[in-house]
Amino acid sequence: MTSKPKQKQQPAQATDATTRDGVRAYFDNALLENQPRLTDLIPKSLWAYLAMLLLGGISIYACQQAFLHTRDLDSTSFPTHLFEISGPGNVASWLHSVTLLMLAVGATMVYLLRRHKTDDYSGRYRLWLHLALFAGVLSIESATGLHEILVVPLAQTDFTAPWNQASVWAMLLVALGAIYLTIRLLVEFKSRPGMLVLLSTSAIILIAACCSRLGDVIGESALTSEVAQSSLVLSGALLVCLMTWLNARKIYRHAQQGAVEQTSVAAAKTQSSASPVQVNEKEVDAVLEEQPVEDPQWDDWDELDDEVVEDETVVYEEYEDEIEEDEADQEVEEVVYEDPEFEEEVEYEEVAEVEQEVEQEVDEPEQYETEEESEYEAEPEEVIYSAYAQHDEPSSDSESEYASTAYETPADDSHQSSPLIPPQTQQPEKVYEPFDEDSFWEQYDLTKMSRKQLKTMRKKLNRLKRKHAEKQRAA
Length: 475
Known about the structure:
Strand content: under 5%
Largest sheet: none
Shape: elongated
Order of helices and strands: HHHHHHHHHHHHHHH
Helix content: 40-55%
């Protein structure tokens, strides 16, 4: 007997609390694809940046006022060291650290977007990564006094004062890093006046903060006081932070301009895959070219988020479109400005003349037939054959067809059978159909037409009547 193969026992799957009893513990908003990205934290409204500036300024002012009101207190139980404005471990150092940390986060935002720029072949986007690292180190130093670690290597040297102090070397390293980043930022913002103004203002404030620490060199003054030093350092950091976040907003908006184009192309690809009809690449390219492209050299420091409302286009009525189509096929006519009442009388007279001409043309064949019969009775023996009879007097278009006549005398059958005289054929009477004016006017709503439009329509009716009469004569 063959033994059945033993099936491998699979480990029992652990029950997850999120899928217990087929009910999820979280809504779909908690899924990874529904979570905001890091760049989504960039504020889009300018009001957010104004609030950042005001909040930072109020915080700096509050720190200075707290220091001024608590430094003269003699109470040993009150923690006055928390409101100091120099050194670590106080509210001012914490505010400075938070400002520098926000600066590092903003520089990281710019780096995440800036590195994907298509024409940055030299890799200038690395500037923002360097700025983020520099601001992060300064944030730690402001909160903890990290520069004190330089005392260890300086103790092994024979430098004289002031070069044997850690604070001097720390300030020198910070100054070198700030000069390097400032030069790089000037190159980065060379075509953006708004950012250059912010950068220049920040540089001036930070230079003043460095000079305020040189009290032994420039002398004691209000600039070298502790309040001035702290205020200048915090203000300079706040302006650099504001500049970085505004630049992040600008780059984010500039980078999202291609999103509409990508969406249209993706929709075209989806349509082509769903249906066998191929997408015309020329039409897609034309749609992409119509998308507005913002000039990368343009600075939108003061731009508003208000949408531009376009004026509504004027919709023309159907009878105006028909008039334009008819006038495009007609010859250019000179416009003569006359009295409106006189022009109406002239138009009505023209209509009457055209009708009279049409009636006259219908009656002309009968007159020629009666004249021929009377001539045949008066002179039966006379045979006049004229293929073409020329007239000296000018004749109208309606009489030109009857300018050439042939007179024959059918006295006997011998004349009709003669080779010199063609056999007589009786032509059927021509019946001319008049132009249907009612059907013409039924196409338009006369109650909505102005006087000028009515004049134009009468001219059009006269031209149609003349063309109709010419076609009838030609037939």
